[in-house]
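Need tokens for this chain, all 279 residues.
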Amino acid sequence: MMAANELSSHAILQDSSMGKTCENIIVLLGGFETRTGEQWLVFRNDGIKSGADYAMAAGVATQKGISVGAWDFWDRFEKAEVLQRRHAFIRKLLAGAFTGLSFMHARGQLHQSLGPASVILNTMEERNISMVLPRLRDLAFAVDVSNETLFRGADPKFGALSDNLWRRAAAAGARTIFERKAFGIADDIFSGGLLLAYIVFASLSVPGSVDAPSLQRLLETTFRLDLTATREWEEAVKFLDLDNKAGWELLQVSEVMLNPDYRQRPIADAVLCHRFMTG
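Here are the structure tokens for all 279 residues:
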């Protein structure tokens, strides 16, 4: 069922009759079912490394004072330049992820599984940032919230995958069709906020000092007070402090992506236009 759901979502996103396709969505070439009933999907090979892989490699590189990928002896004496490249790579990774998410939302599709592992990279070379092209994958839990689907009722084949989403929507006070759709989009944005936080902190912190569940708890509770007091996260804090604390502004729980009130969260396009993302 999940393979069929992903196939359906990709078919909608790659339908040229609906307008342009998006280079930040992984390309599905087709699918097939074996004689034993196993369902397989075939994607174009646009890379095997994920955002999670990059964050892990970048954390190690930050500790060593070198670049991810090709590096040379002088990296150790040019710490500022190495970090500038890392900052640029992080912004490009995140911009690609939110561009793909914006494209999905514009076509009535929710990702519902957004995280570091769901962003695929064609390269992790920080010295060759012009070639970096992040793409979203893992659409097995995608939910169709197009107006056509919502007005005619959920497709029974895929309804079980979205049951939890609609239960949470009802608990948050979203009961009409349009409120449910808005909640689903905001739910993806919340995951995007956690993705942004994890990529930034894992890439610029001591390896092993950041994990997604602990970071989420911290972001939802004490947030900045604890972060600035932890030397292991010093470079991440400095990055968020750039441009008059633009990163903190984007992440702030009470104001933007991680706002407990789904109605107050921005759409993906607004995130892309934020001064933190534009650098």
